Fold each of these.
Amino acid sequence: MKHRLLLLLLLLSTGAAYAQVTYFGDLIGKGFQQATVVQPSDYEGSVTCTIIRKTAPEKSARAVLYVHGFNDYFFQEEMARRYSEAGYNFYAVDLRKCGRSWLGHQKIGNVRDLSEYYADIDTALTVIQGEGNEKVLLSGHSLGGLVVTLYAGERAGREKFDAVLLNSPMFALNVKSGLKKTALPLLLKRAEKHPETSFDLDINPLYGESLHVTAHGEWSYSLGLKPFVAPPVNLGWIRAVLNGQERLTQGITINKPVLVLHSAKSIDEKKWSDAFFTGDAVLNVDDVARQAQNIIGQYSIQAVQGGMHDLILSRQPVRDEVYSTIFNWAKRAVK
């Protein structure tokens, strides 16, 4: 009995064990399922992540894992359908303290080091492999794109994925250069002792309005889980993100093929206009393109004309082009 216990602990510590998860009907319905996974507690208490899946209509050993961004959760039914039609079993993970995984005692999105998310990605990838998937595309959007990039570098030599797709990764905060040199260093210093101090990112709520069906957009999702006005973060979050971006600046080696997609231009409108449908209203795309070149390995960068921040939520002709680009690349990358 003692030897069995030691073996179990060893398997768990190396990530080799596969824990069976129990799926239930997801809030989206339409054949989507979700499973809640309890993770080790942290500085706020108990922690969970949520795995969402929809299997391809025909038996497949290929899968994609999607990691959402800041002030976000998985809701993109069309994305799942496109992957399913291309022969991929679709999976997404709502990271701890986000979307389906948020618990009442937690501050939404609270994180002090982006590596806290690695356990959620590890868990999802282990489940995906345990369900018979032999080839896996790891995909991240915005903050999720930054997290996936760092994760892929940290897991070099131990990858449970075969290629990396980054959709408008948050490789730099969209702040003016003067503030980067003056305000951000002061915030970082204060964050060391006061990580819970609240800070408003001042993300333009018009971006959310450009997406949601009740405003100017075409997408239906929960405004409780993804509100127009992003909730304030804290200085611990700022420090975690800036530290992650600095690690990328120093160069990150990724052993698998990487595709970085971003909009061809940024939008900085203060009032509503249809210009929000034509560019990235969250990030500076020049920063994204420049920072992407700090990936060491086999990578390609492509600007998408007319793409919005979340490229797969752009107007249909644009997102059709995005999917075509993704699947053409994946045919070569996910072998």
Amino acid sequence: MNKKSQKEKNAALIKAEAKRLGFSECGIAKARFLEEEADFLEEWLKNGMHGEMSYMANHFDKRLDPTKLVEGAKSVVMLSYNYFPEKDVASEDTYKVAKYAYGEDYHYVIKRKLKDLVKYIESEIGEVNGRVFVDSAPVMERAWAKQAGLGWVGKHSLLLNRSMGSFFFLAELIIDLELEEDPPIKDYCGTCTRCIDACPTDAIPQKGVVDGSKCISYLTIELKDSIPQEFEGKMQDWIFGCDICQDVCPWNRFSKPHQEESFNAHEKLGDINKKDWEELTEDVFKEVFRKSAVKRTKYEGLMRNINFAKKR
């Protein structure tokens, strides 16, 4: 068997197993320096759009070059995992939590599956040197997902896919195994600006650029200090994350409910009204969000967000 067909065979094996494990799509890119992303990242950081997320300025070279994360890296295997819920619990008459945080923390759910995928590769193809990542290292995953053909980067800076919109997680394997690459696909946003127009805090100053320091997700999760008064009356009841730019995106009409039991919302989450949120006790917080990403804010942080969102 020649070298090219071996690369194709191995790529097909990995994609089939990824599908069996529940991943929505799998694409492969060649591990290389992301030269085209370097200027964008440098400018974004220089303009302070990372806010207090100082870690974004760390490991600049590693963000752009996977071979600095995994010695001898040959391939970046990009995977998507659907989290679109069957029922949207962010109704108009209550405070809202981003859909990705309804169920169990995705970091743990997906990392378990990634480790299973690595075990499969080693049992079927042979020993590989590599690492698995789920938001856990300086990897420009949207850029890599674009390179691997999983979608294009929308004007809201999130990855978009023609068959499933944008409500999916990204994860990756960086490995020293040479695999057949997938070609990137074109941008299908066209002249649409719904995400830009809908953002209540003007956090999308231009196509594909999000000013993190103005984003509701940043304000309610990453920001540890008080939320600046300039955002008073603009939160639209979001208290953990925000889905506004995704909810208005026409491509998300193709979103289909996920099949991952771990991502189902806690039974109490859909029944909490505004009064319940405002009177939330730490015990209820721990019960409802015991396994959720919402734990990141801690109880005090969530109550800060609720009290700020009340202001109109």
Amino acid sequence: MRKQQFIYKTWKELLLKVSFFPATATEAKDKTILYFHGGGFLFGDREDLPEAYLALFLKNGFHVLAFDYPLAPETPLREIVHCLEAGVHWFLENYQSRLNLLEPDFFLFGRSAGGCLASILTANHYQHQLGLIRFYGYHHFDHEEFVLPSPFYNHYPKVPPLTAQQLIQNQPTVVSGVAERFPLYLSARQYGNWLSYLGPKLNELTVNDKQLEQFPPVFMAQCRKDPDVPIVSSQQMAAAVKQCTFLELDRNAHDFDREKNPTATDIYQKLLDWLEEQIRNRK
């Protein structure tokens, strides 16, 4: 598949990039999915969307723009959000001149921590945002699962905090693979100190029910027995958003779409149908 790369922002000498995948369909819909990766804000790669599902978007006429963002704890979450706000504005300012698109209409899509980021940015009420796609994400941090030792992650070999903190860099960093930084996240969840890595003023990044009532249409999917992110967060959003499609999967998994499988393929097909519906409703 074709791909272009652009720098959308320089953050403390760190080059933040986007990967642009133009639609491969004969007739592109000229709608773009702005994608934010997962990784608990501590690790991850902008191109972590499984290739099978990326290709599905492209062949159905949707462009995909995948974003870097600086990682915590070297960069506090509030600054991560500011960087991605700049990323959305970069798209809106450059969709014609750099990406050769005719329309600025977009959907925000995030998985896990990326779903949190997409939720926070949706509260900005972008004029051209047609909807929010959130897979196993959240919109606030007021869950006891985030501050208590995780039974799921404590099945893994223990990573003491002092050992994990040796992975923290002296300068902002971006695009870190699972092998490099997952032990930092693992330790944070094992010892219940994950939120301390995200910086101060997390309450200011909470999306409240009043804001959710003003959201554009939302499509969500999450496993009912998600061992990482409490499903109650998705249930709360589904109850507050006026137009919400929420699919609860009867599985014990977090990123149910990590690899291609029949359940995930069915979810993505339902998502494509939902995307088509939002475009029809916009006309």
